[in-house]
Amino acid sequence: MKTNQTKPIRTSMFRIQCWALNVALALFLLCSGGALAAVRYVHVDNINATPPYTNWTTAATNIQDAVDAAVAGDEIVVSDGSLRTSLAPQPAMGSPRVDSAYPDA
């Protein structure tokens, strides 16, 4: 009779451990989502702009290039200074986009 009593306890302990593992995994996945985001850099005077613009050495020279290289969740960091932008319709979408960026004189 003692063996019948321990079987339900083992089963319930296994269920609790699985539940706790699932909760821990869900929390880890929720918290690590931001860790996959990249930082894109923009510096108008950069002479070595190279996609994906993930450091100051290869920073984009205009904001639109960094936006085009970015995916959802990415951060775009722009260097100090003033940028003048012009808007032009994007042929495929028909919506405005930043066409170019120049420092104000």
Verbal overview:
The protein is an alpha+beta fold. It has two domains: 2-34; 37-103, no CATH class. It has helices at 2-32, 63-69; strands at residues 39-42, 75-78, 83-89, 96-103. The protein has a two-stranded parallel ribbon with strand order 1-2. Strand 1 (39-42), helix 2 (63-69) and strand 2 form a beta-alpha-beta unit. The protein is rod-shaped. The mean pLDDT is 74.
Q: Which terms would index this structure?
A:
105 residues, alpha+beta, 2 domains, two-stranded parallel ribbon, two-stranded antiparallel sheet, 2 helices, 36% helix, 22% strand, rod-shaped
Provide a short characterization of the protein structure.
With 105 residues, this protein is α+β, with helices and mostly antiparallel strands. It has helices at 2-32, 63-69; strands at 39-42, 75-78, 83-89, 96-103.
Count helical runs. Answer: 2
Strand order of the largest sheet: 1-2
Our measurement of the CA-to-CA distance between the termini, rounded to an integer number of angstroms, reads: 90 Å
Got a strand count? 4
Structural class: alpha+beta
**Poorly predicted runs of 5 or more residues:** none
Cα gyration radius (Å): 26 Å
Taken from the alpha-carbon principal axes, the silhouette is rod-shaped
Compressed to H and E, one letter per element, the order equals HEHEEE
Beta-strand percent range: 15-25%
